[in-house]
Design brief:
Layout (H helix, E strand, L loop, with lengths): L1 E5 L8 H14 L5 E5 L5 H7 L7 E3 L6 H10 L4 E5 L6 H7 L4 E6 L3 H16 L4 E8 L4 H13 L7 E2 L2 H5 L15 H18 L22 E2 L4
Parallel strand pairs: 1-4, 1-5, 2-3, 2-4, 5-6, 6-7
Antiparallel strand pairs: 3-8
Length: 233
């Protein structure tokens, strides 16, 4: 099982939308079973999944404290890909999640506020010794700031060669539990996600898993749960 963590200090960078789209694309390409985990208190990813009609990807209900143990449970259940959505923060808890990753995806909109915040996220990931890639998200075609973002992010680390552009269908597809790939007709956004997943997959193939999972505090018996199935939460 490979673990992808979507992380960014900046809110509104598109972490949740990318997490859902990448998991669905992996399933569509036969690279599942894929599972999603939402450790963001806002719960946007879990809300999207609960509106979803399709049974895949599955959703794993867990907590940051239980995540190491539940990762092993997911492995036993045959999950091949786990994508974890994190809150827009750089807390020790986020660090605990990043430490478990085979690859950390850091999305960034091409805006001054986003670009100023990515350094701290990259520093945390590098400090923990985990591989990372940047993804430019919600870009406006041919905008000067997009070219500036390419230059800035390339200087901080590895930049995915696929830019996800700002389009109405990309964001609005999440309203009813779908992704842009599942809407009728062809979509440039769907093509971008397919190419982005292909690149993420290539990066995962070349990465090795952490040799051991760090020990985290455990919760009380009443708080220990893991639901990994196609049923709604």
């Amino acid at each position: 099982m490979r673990i992808v963590v979507i992380a960014s200090r900046k809110g509104g960078s598109g972490k949740t939308t990318l997490a859902g789209h990448l998991a669905v694309q992996a399933e569509r390409e036969g690279q599942g079973p894929a599972a999603l985990v939402d450790v963001d208190p806002q719960g946007s990813l879990s809300e999207w999944w609960n509106k979803r009609a399709a049974e895949t990807p599955v959703f794993a209900h867990t907590t940051i404290a239980r995540l190491p143990q539940d990762i092993e449970r997911l492995r036993e259940l045959g999950i091949k890909l786990l994508i974890v959505d994190t809150p827009p923060a750089l807390t020790s808890a986020v660090g605990d999640v990043v430490r478990l990753a085979d690859l950390v995806v850091i999305p960034s909109r091409p805006s001054p506020h986003d670009l100023r915040s990515i350094g701290a996220t990259a520093e945390l990931v590098e400090h923990l010794g985990r591989p990372l890639i940047f993804v430019i998200n919600s870009a406006v075609p041919r905008a000067r700031i997009t070219n500036e973002a390419i230059d800035i992010l390339s200087r901080h680390g590895v930049l995915a060669p696929v830019i996800v552009h700002h389009r109405v269908d990309f964001a609005s597809s999440m309203i009813d539990g779908r992704t842009v790939m599942e809407l009728p007709g062809n979509s440039k956004s769907g093509d971008e996600i397919a190419r982005l997943w292909s690149y993420v997959q290539e990066r995962l193939v070349g990465q090795s898993r952490p040799s051991h999972l760090p020990s985290l505090p455990t919760l009380g018996p009443a708080q220990r749960f893991l639901a990994v199935s196609g049923s709604r939460a």
